[in-house]
């Protein structure tokens, strides 16, 4: 058995206490949101601070899920996250793989990518480009302008460079063309990196709301985060229309908490399926080959 000194045991204890405290600080807001969203109007009005519902009710969830605008916003965000992530990975991996192979002008291309990473064009030029291309009020305006993240592309390029050259040379000698090498050899070996960057892109698309504010004028095409902004921050009562079957709408606070919880669940559900690849994939591109 490995001997551990008193200082090592003390350090482990301090680390455990610190991590439990940090985990509690992160878990507490979710517990509060959960409790308020399932509390009755009477309990919410009588208690300023709730950590657990005294009377369980689902009025807020029935009110929200019965609203066509909220349901549509969820499907809009799901479409943006799914289509955007697939296109992000397609363009990021193909460009990263191309830049990982030696060719004339490679340094110039890499410099152009890094230049866009260091110097952003800004909101107004980007808006004018989106407007002139006819993408205003289109869901593609939330996907096309952010097809490639320069940082993710550079890290992915480094990951591809770490793949042994002998594998691609063997496939080429067997008659595989560059596209076959990329799809049959490179991508299957890149599952941890694809899962990691896919999660990054999906979370970014799901949480993005500023682009929706700029480019989407039709409320029926709002992603869920823009609708949440109207409900929670702006406190716009017209964001959710009155529902049939409700003589009186639930308290605005319980509706807000239920909406926040419902908007958070999809990402929480996706993460466990990618977690086994996440820890490995996030570090692979940083190892110099």
TrEMBL record:
Domain of life: Bacteria
PROSITE patterns: ABC_TM1 (PS50928)
Single GO biological process annotation from the record: transmembrane transport
UniProt main location, coarse: membrane
GO CC list: plasma membrane
Localisation: Cell membrane
InterPro entries: MetI-like (IPR000515), MetI-like_sf (IPR035906)
Domain ABC transmembrane type-1: 74-274
Protein name, as recorded: Carbohydrate ABC transporter permease
